[in-house]
Amino acid sequence: MPLDAQIEAVLFYRAEPMKIAVLAKFFEVSEDEVRTALEALGERLKSGAIRLILTDSEAVLATSPQLSETIEKLRKDDLKKDIGKAGAETLAIVLYRGPLSRVEIDRIRGVNSTFILRNLLIRGLVERRANPNDSRSFHYAITPELFAHLGVERREQLPEFEDIMNTLDTFESEQQSVEEGESDNVFATT
């Protein structure tokens, strides 16, 4: 499979901007090879519904500007729907444990949260911030509008905050102990 097609698949799957350096490392090629493949991908996509947005250091897939009315209609329809169980679960994770990266949210939920987070972003319930520890990723945090809607000024004012945090801390400590025990026995025979 050509490099531009592989990059297209990764950008589609990630559904967020990716650094060219990260793509180069992932595909074990030079940044120049990634840029060449991105140029080919951009040309190939130019006449379709999807466009490649390319900056000096990042690439992301987006819909064609000609389809903005269609996408806006879809967005309005999405906003009319309930966020659902997965949305509520993800929102609770960000509310009580945030700010967190998508990878951390995925680890807690056990499934990919990309589209759920997109839905929460569109609704203004969460926001994406630069990750202070890793410039290649983002943290998801609760918006001031959600705090206002919930009638609190900070998360410590949420109902049963201390009890929930203590339960989460205990659970995470137990999980970490189990994971460390499993990693110690990787080469053990039964």
TrEMBL record:
PANTHER family in the record: SEGREGATION AND CONDENSATION PROTEIN B (PTHR34298)
Q: Which UniProt keywords apply?
A: Cell cycle, Cell division, Chromosome partition, Cytoplasm
> Per the UniProt entry, what species is this protein from, by scientific name?
Candidatus Kaiserbacteria bacterium CG10_big_fil_rev_8_21_14_0_10_47_16
InterPro entries per record: ScpB_csome_segregation, WH-like_DNA-bd_sf, WH_DNA-bd_sf
Kindly give the Gene3D superfamilies that the UniProt entry links to this protein. Answer: Winged helix-like DNA-binding domain superfamily/Winged helix DNA-binding domain
The processes (GO biological process) annotated in the record are: cell division; chromosome separation
Name-wise, this protein is: SMC-Scp complex subunit ScpB
- The domain of life is Bacteria
